[in-house]
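Comment thread on ticket #2218

A.B. wrote:
> Attaching the input chain for the structure job we discussed in standup.
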Amino acid sequence: MCSNRKAVRILLVGDSGVGKTSLILSLVSEEFPEDVPPRAEEITIPPDVTPEKVPTHIVDYSEREQTVDQLRMEINRADVVCIVYNVEDEDTLDTVTGHWLPLVRSTLGQQHQTPIILVGNKVDLVDYSTMEIVLQTMMEYPEVETCVECSARTLKNISEMFYYAQKAVLHPTAPLYILEQRDLTEKCKKALIRIFKICDTDNDGLLNDQELNAFQRRCFNAPLNPQALEELKTVVRRNISDGVHSDSLTLRGFLFLHRLFIQRGRHETTWTVVRRFGYNDNLQLRKDYLFPHIRVPPGCSTELNHSGYSFLTSLFEKYDKDQDGALSPQELVDLFSTCPVMPWGPDVSHSVHVNEKGWITLQGFLAQWTLWTSLDVHRTLEYLAYLGFCGTADESQLSAITVTREKRIDLQKKQTMRNVYQCHVIGPRDAGKTTFCQGLLGKSLEEAQSIPSDALSRHTISTLQVYGQEKYLVLHDIDVHNITDALMPNEVQCDVACLVYDTSNPKSFEYVARIYMKYFSESRIPILFVNNKNDMATVRQDYIIQPTAFCHKYKLPPPHPFSSASQPKRDIYTKLATMAAYPNLRRLVHLLLLRPETNRVARHLKQLSIVVGDHSLWLKVGLGVAAVAAFALLIARTLRAER
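C.D. wrote:
> Ran it. Output below, let me know if you need it in another format.
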């Protein structure tokens, strides 16, 4: 995989008469020019004739035609600088260190990253090499990438020289390797360690043959044949004692191989690997890799799809080393070790299901990712990238995400394909919103009250069965302090709203009644009033109309009693999820019940848990398939009649 550079700009500098222009013209014409101009015009080599398939611009410098300021400008524009000297003229070699290298440093800065190629021209005139002298220069100047000796007259190493210059830009040594220490840079090691962990799918600290071949396919689109695989491990065994264990490659062996590739001039191998896993030329994860562009139109939502859930399930199983169905704190740290920081705090254990030790279960793990994706899809994309998600072929982590259609269309078509529903829980202070939200996770009042305030989450999420299908319900505790506080648009827009009041507090219902009249009376959002603390004495509300009469007047389900004093019942949460899934159901059922042919089906549906006016329908998950089918048929007939 190549660098994301769109072009390479090569600048040739050096003393007069060293053959800079001849080198350029010999490359282009493939013959030595007898009539050499003072300076060659800028040459552009098209991508289809270069090994790296990148356009290459070659720029000549002439001391006779250009000023020092023009030279400095060209140095600043160059991606790589070739300093040319004459191998038979010792003075031109001296000026490499005496003038040209210091000039580049003074122009670009002492710590500049522009690679330098030393080019010894006219080797056809001598029978010796200057490489020994040049190697010393390379040790003194780390920016010197390599040196090549060539001849413009005989065309020896001409194409190689420009190839090395291009390679120095596209596959630079400096980010990967420290020449003085003959070792990988810390950035390179960190990147390769992350890659090793991602590819170690069974989490045993080794890359077996299957994992190595999967790595090869991901990076180079082809597996290693068995003989090549054995030869690779043999090379590692000969050079490092603990590089191979149980016929599998260790992390030390993996790092050794990449060090060996670089020492043998095969930088492109390591660059292909790190770029395939999202790194840029500075060995930092690319922004476009972490945050691929995703368009979420207004009214749409984002959900994980099968590909995303499959990857996350495999990830959970990989790090659940003791196979107890939960991730211990250390297992969770290990799972996120390929990420820059641990993204989850103590609030996670109060947002999703955990086991008796407070460790996140697979159900809770998938729910937390579902919550992330629903609330902040960019964060999900970022961490899927850190964790090494890879779709088929070159797909990004976008292949793990589904953008749902607009809710407006769902309402028009009277059905939704969404799997995650947002429920906003609104009510006055002390109405018990927090305990209601924690009840979704099966926590009692005592358990909810024992949660430290700094560990409390505003969101809880769990799966529920809606007509036999598993759906996620997200409860969002909307924090409104006073009755005069205005709700923001994002606090109103949801799939279903739950208005909670304290049945033992006479001042409580007025708050939610006013909220309903101000924000929801004209909307198509399903509403459920909840009279919380039902285990306490019910008192008359200080409002112009009592809760049950209020709901009847506005054709809403009557207030649903709830108490978290004991183990909370899940029927109320199933009701909320069902209302979110079928926002038109209340009106349709009202129409159906006006028709005489629905009486028989209505008797079966009196167990449905959605209430319309004074008609009670308790919708159970265990409803018979026949009854559901009959109900659906009647809905279809009613819809046709409406049209």
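A.B. wrote:
> Thanks. Noting for the ticket: The longest strand covers residues 469-477.
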